[in-house]
Design goal:
about 325 residues, alpha/beta, Rossmann fold, 7-stranded parallel sheet, 5-stranded parallel sheet, 13 helices, binds 2-keto-D-gluconic acid
Length: about 325
């Protein structure tokens, strides 16, 4: 006898191929609108579903989990970062959490390089000149940027994405440095020709470019606070494709405005869409709308990971990408 299908609620529109496959496999509720669910809609979802498939735009905190019914068994997050989910409370309530690591590594690392290049080579300023229709032709001193080759890149967070950034940046001729809560194994460190800094302060003070690639956890909150930002060289550039709250956004904005930091490339913000308005006014800042992993291929592979996690759970096994509090 065919078994009853698991009921799955997906909180956002996903690529059509992913939604269609989910519909073939599960009793699925898809969204018509591509807006985040309201708190009431999320509460209804956790009450009624066996499986919730949220994204970074859904806050799954203890208050919401308290409203979950007995049915809810798995939160199969569509995304790698799980800082919007209270993983410890979910675990206490017997709800598993999984994510989609690995499939967005290269895309996010590519976007990190794009931001480094965009800021150091002043690409948005060049685009603005062309779009204004005002270009007077080539001039020897126009829009001079800085050469990335030979610069020192300090990577904060040397997990999958940090390492992918290191490989790309090395190919551009950058010197690779990193700080991580755990030092890499010697053979990996040697392959990346990376220099490890136990002291983040010491690393920050010596770098030309800083790239944030660590997850958001209580211990990485404002890791780049005002005091540490002040250690940066005034010629330094900072790039963030990880999570906004690793940097004190107001302190960064103040320092960019007065030229204490040369530039920034940001894909993520401390308070989501509520961005410090002054950041938008700055020429030395490139802002992107959290699109680091936004490739069609990546989004489909994220969906495939979600499906594998749910199917494996349905078959009575641990989802391969289960997240447990001790990993965070
Ligand atoms: C995703 C991300 O687009 O996976 C992550 O952690 O930050 C993004 O690149 C988003 O989280 C999808 O939920």
């Amino acid at each position: 006898m065919p078994r009853e299908r698991l009921s799955v609620v997906v909180t956002r529109r996903l690529p059509e191929a992913v939604e269609t496959r989910l519909s073939e496999l599960f009793d699925i509720k898809l969204r018509d609108d591509d807006t985040p669910m309201t708190r009431a809609e999320l509460a209804q979802a956790v009450k009624s579903a066996d499986i919730l498939v949220p994204t970074v735009t859904d806050t799954i905190d203890a208050g919401l989990l308290a409203q979950a019914g007995d049915k809810l068994k798995l939160i199969a997050n569509y995304g790698a970062g799980v800082d919007h989910i209270d993983v410890a409370t979910a675990r206490q309530r017997g709800v598993l959490v999984s994510n989609t690591p690995g499939v967005l590594t290269d895309d996010t690392a590519d976007m990190t390089m794009a931001l480094i290049l965009a800021v150091t080579r002043r690409i948005p300023e060049g685009l603005a000149v062309m779009q204004s229709g005002d270009w007077q032709g080539w001039a020897p001193t126009a829009l001079m940027g800085g050469r990335v080759g030979g610069r020192r890149l300090g990577i904060l967070g040397m997990g999958r994405i940090g390492q992918a950034v290191a490989r790309r940046a090395a190919a551009f001729g950058m010197q690779i440095h990193y700080h991580n809560r755990k030092r890499l194994r010697p053979e990996i460190e040697a392959a990346l020709e990376a220099t490890y800094w136990d002291s983040l302060d010491q690393m920050v003070a010596r770098m030309d470019v800083i790239s944030i690639n660590c997850p958001a956890t209580p211990s990485t909150f404002h890791l780049m606070n005002a005091r540490r930002l002040k250690l940066l060289k005034p010629t330094a550039v900072i790039v963030n494709t990880a999570r906004g709250d690793v940097i004190d956004e107001n302190a960064l904005t103040r320092m960019l405005r007065v030229g204490e930091i040369a530039g920034a490339g940001l894909d993520v913000y401390e308070h989501g869409t509520d961005i410090n308005p002054r950041l938008r006014e700055l020429k030395n800042v490139v802002l992107l709308p959290h699109m680091g992993s936004a490739t069609l291929e990546g989004r489909i592979e994220m969906g495939e990971k979600v499906i594998i996690n749910i199917k494996t759970f349905e078959d009575g096994h641990r989802p391969p990408d289960q997240v447990v509090p001790s990993m965070l």
